[in-house]
Amino acid sequence: MGVRLYTPIDTPKAFARDLWLIDGPAIRFAGLPFTTRATVIRLPAGALWVHSPTRLTEGLASDLAALGTVGHLIAPNWIHYAYLPEWQAAFPEALLWAAPGVAARAEARGKRLRVDRDLTDAAPPDWHGTIEQIVVAGNAVHREAVFFHRPSRTLILTDLIENFEPARLPIWMRPLVRLAGIAAPKGRMPPDMRATFRDRAALRASVETLLGWAPERIVLSHGRLFERNAMAELRRAFAFVLR
Is residue 5 part of a domain? Predict the structure, then answer.
C-alpha cells in the first residue's frame, strides 16, 4: 500500500511492564492506507487483554502463548473489528468486549462477531484496579472506549487522535494528513470526526477524565506514539474543546 510499517510487524514488542505493542500491516479505510497497532496487557491473574487486535499469524499466536492466555479481546469502537473473527476462531474461550455499534457495523460489512460483553464507563471486575475505562461522550455514532493502564500510566486511544508520520506515507497522502492536522508530531482528532461531536460539554467532561488519570504516555492505533509529555499532548490535541 506504499506505507512504511513499524517493523517488526506481527510480533509483541515490550513497551512497559506487562504491556506490549503489536504493529500490524496496513489496512484501507475510506480508500486511505492506515497503519495498525494492537496493545496487549497481562492482567494480574495472567490473562492477556488485547486491544484492537491486528492480523493474527501462527508466529504471533505462539509469541502470545509465551506471555499468557488470551482472555479478553477489545473492540474499542465501531470501525475496529476487521481481524476479530480470526482471533475468536483461534481463542474461542476469550471474551469479546465491544463498544456500542461494533456488532451492527460488523454484520453490515458481512462479518459475524460473538459479542460477549459490552464496554461501558465502568471497568469490570476482570480488570478493575489495573485498567480504567470510559466510553467517550458527545457523539451519537462514534462511541470510543478509552483505557488507562494504571501500573504503567499508559493511556490507550484508538481513533480520537491520529498522528501519522508523513515520511511513512505515500507521497500523495502526505498533504492530506497535513491539511487535516493529523500529521506527527502534532496529531489530533480527524476533522470529520470532530464535526460529529455535537455535545462539546460532554466531550469536554470525558477529556477532563482522561487528564484526571494523569497519564505519562499515550498509545495510538494509527501513527507515532506519544512516549512522553502525555498531559501536554492531550491538552494540545483537545484544545478545541478545553478552551
Answer: no
